[in-house]
Structure formats: structure tokens, C-alpha cells
Amino acid sequence: MSVTTAGPRPVPPVPPGGAGPAPGPRDPRRRALRRRRLIALVFVLPTLLLLGALVVYPIFYSVGRSLFDASGDRFVGVGNYTEMFRDPATLKAIRNSTIWVVIAPALLTGLGLILAVLTEKIRWATAFKLLMFMPMAISFLAAGIIFRVAYEQDPDRGILNAAVVGIHDVFTESSPYPGAWAREDAADGAGPGIEEQPDGSFATTGTVGHGDTVTLPVLGIPPGDLPGTAEPALPAAQEQAAADELRGIVFLDFSPGGGGEAGRIDEGESGLPRMTVQALQDGTVVATATTGPDGSFTFDGLPPGQYTVQLPAENFAESWNGVSWLGPALITPAVIGAYLWIWTGFAMVLIGAGLSSLPRDTLEAARMDGANEWQVFRSITVPLLGPVLTVVFVTLVINVMKVFDLVYIIAPGPVQQDANVLALQMWLVSFGGGNNQGLGSALGVLLLLLVLPAMVFNIRRFRRSQS
Length: 467
Prior knowledge:
The chain is α+β, with helices and mostly antiparallel strands. Helix content is 47%, strand content 10%.
């Protein structure tokens, strides 16, 4: 049997010029790889062109435009940046943006974490998450209009003040006739005159005593606003006061259909119930009475003497209309509240997704070791959710630094500067009346520089989580 011995492997021919070995069997793979890269580039190219046109070009254009004056003809260098930090409106916008960054993301992340943990304990978790996430489907314009109406100070329009005023009136009785006043030009012979006091009360200019009946005419109450229990005042005026009592009547000095005499009780004029009346002697309140349905009141048991009758200012004090949510002091917290309503569902869903991926055996082991729910939440759940909480927090930081539409829609014109933020200031300076696009571009560059670190941090975080 013969054995054939393999000789040396043939060497591929060297092409002319000594460039290396001729193409081998690996070339088809390289060509396929190049083809796939070319196909991917073809699909990505439209996106790259859009990003270049809508993101990259505006960034470079804004940087260049920020170096020129308002007209764009004169180069000013860093003049716009210097002016930006000398402008009180810009400094207030920076302050408000700082408040947003410090408060809103922290509150949203905390609320999202709490709701995500609690949602796991309820039966209808999916429906609850859907309800919480639903505001994200509403545009910021619509949400701003909703909260602009909700924050109205008039309780008949603003739902928040309607609730606040309702609770307030449960514990504090409101004045029965806000905005009314007593008639000071009573007719001759109708009894002592009436004069307004420095504290807003109305008192008789003369004195009365036992056996007297004093009439106190009041104006400024539309007949339709009278209490349903009000009765005509004339029958009570025809009764005589007893010798040991001081009587009086408080009435609306207005005759339906016109006519009548000022300061006198005419046919059809109504008494004013629930009116507080005081008897004063030497400037000191010695007795207090409340009028009945026909407006009559009686002071019994007064010592003999002369008294002044007074209608305290509380009878006419304007009703409390609630909190001025859209005032200078509360406008920024009010807008942040609207922002929380929109974005809480977003934070809850993201944190809930992270919560669902936690190792349940770790949580159960902690419970079996005797840890209560608070200890499990604080020592295990929160540390394990650290990466998710960080991503949610940083994403919200980026978002709140660009907030514009909610502030622009909710804040009324007179207090818009009190709620001003950088994005709104950039728009106001450039297009909202300032017409200084050089300064507006500088504000845009500042906003970009502030957002950039958070964006870089988030991108690195994503890359680390994928590696």
C-alpha cells in the first residue's frame, strides 16, 4: 500500500506591483458588509438631513446670530451675553427656572415613586395607571387653558377657589350683605340720622332710649339677592315699643316699581334678616341683637339711659373670594402644579416599569427576615430603583428647563414677568415685542448650555445600562 505525502500548500500568486495576496474567499463577506452599511446609510440619510436642517443648523445659526446686534448688521461679540446678565427680567427668568429645576423634578420623581409602589397594592392597577397617564395625551395648550380657568379667583368660575371658599364658609360665617351700606340722608322726622364710622360701621348720629323705635335704612342690595326668609318691614314698623325696651327695624330702602320716600318704610319694602345690631353707651357695646325675618330687633333689659344704635362693619364686609392663585406671589407654584398634573403619570409609569423588573426573591427574603414594608421600601426598593429614578429625574430636569407654553398660557399679562422662565424670556425678547433676535439668540445659547450637561449625563447612563 502506497502512502501519498502532502506537499507544501501552494502560495497564492502575488499581483503585479507586490500589493499583497489576491482576493480570497473572504471578499464576498466584506462586500455583503459594505452593502448592508450602504443600505443602512440610505435609510438613515433622511433622518440625518432632517436633524441637520432642524437641529444642527439652527444651533450654529443661533450661536452666530448671538454675536450681532438686534438688526443683525453690527458685530457686538459677547455684548448680548453681557446685557443678558444685566437685564432684571432675564435674572428673574433665571431665578424662576432655578426654582423649576429644584422643585418640579424632585416632586415628580417622589410622587411617581410613591404612586408606582402603591399601585402594585391595588386591584385595578392598570385602570389607575391609565387615568394617571391620560393628561399626557392632552396638549400643553389645552392643559394651560384648563388650569387658567381652574385658578380663577371668582368662585363661580374657578373650581379651586369654589372648593376653598366652600370649606372656609363652613368654619367662618360670611357677611350677610356684602357691599351694602346704610342710607345717611334719612328724611326729616324719620328718626336720628345715620353716619358712617371710620371702621366701616354705621351708627345713629343721635341717641335713643326706652320706648323708642329706630329705623335703619340700607341700600346697595339687589332685591333678587334678598334672603328667601325676608318678610315685609311695614307691619313690624307699625308696632309700638314697650316702655322698657328699645326696638328697631333694618330694612331695604327700595320700593319695587319705584316711588316711596327715602329713609321711611313704604309699602312693599322688605326687612333684612340676620343683620347684627349693637347698642352703644359712651362708645362701649352694651348689647347685641340679630334682626328677624322682617328686619326687626329688640334690646331687652337695658338700663335706663340714652344709647347709640350701630350696624357693625361685619354686616357689609365683602365675601372672601378665595386664594389669588394667579397673583404675583403664587403664580409660579400654580404653574408648577399644572405641570405636576400632566407629568406625574409619566414618572409613575416609568418607575412602575422598573419596579416590575425588581427581583421579587430579594424583597420576599427581606420580609421573611422581619423587615416591615417601610424598611423594605427604604433599604431595598429605592436603592434597586436608583438607576431608573436617576433617568426619570434627569429627563424631567431637561424638560422643565424648556417649559414655555404652560407659563405663557396660565400666567395673566400683568404677572407674566413674575412667572417668567428662560424659554419664555427668549420668546418675548425675540418675537413677543422685544424684536431683538441677537439677545434672544444669546438666551437660546444659554438655555442650550444649561440643558447640555443633563443630556450628556442621560446618554452616558443609557449606554452604561446597555453594556
